[in-house]
Amino acid sequence: xxxxxxxxxxxxxxxxxxxxxxxxxxxxxxxxxxxxxxxxxxxxxxxxxxxxxxxxxxxxxxxxxxxxxxxxxxxxxxxxxxxxxxxxxxxxxxxxxxxxxxxxxxxxxxxxxxxx
Length: 116
Description:
Blueprint: H1 11-25, E1 30-35, E2 55-59, E3 66-69, H2 71-84, H3 89-94, H4 98-110
Antiparallel strand pairs: 1-2, 2-3
Helix pairs in contact: 1-4, 2-4
């Protein structure tokens, strides 16, 4: 078996980055993560995008500002965050923490870093 390209973003990478974001990275600007339709195989919101679902992030201070996050958008956010930090997606993943996961989510939702 060959190693994946350093530019490949796997479902495990997405889930792990979302766990870091949801458990601390985005808490200073996101008041809630909602899931409208739970795929049956998902136990946590961080699993939903990799199973074809969408999570909605509620932006602090405005309960009507709901931002949709699906697999396509979070992969785009990871690529943008990796480029921002001058990493490949793989090296970004290998070195991610709550702060860099926050950046990936912000790039996914806003196409730029809006907070912090």
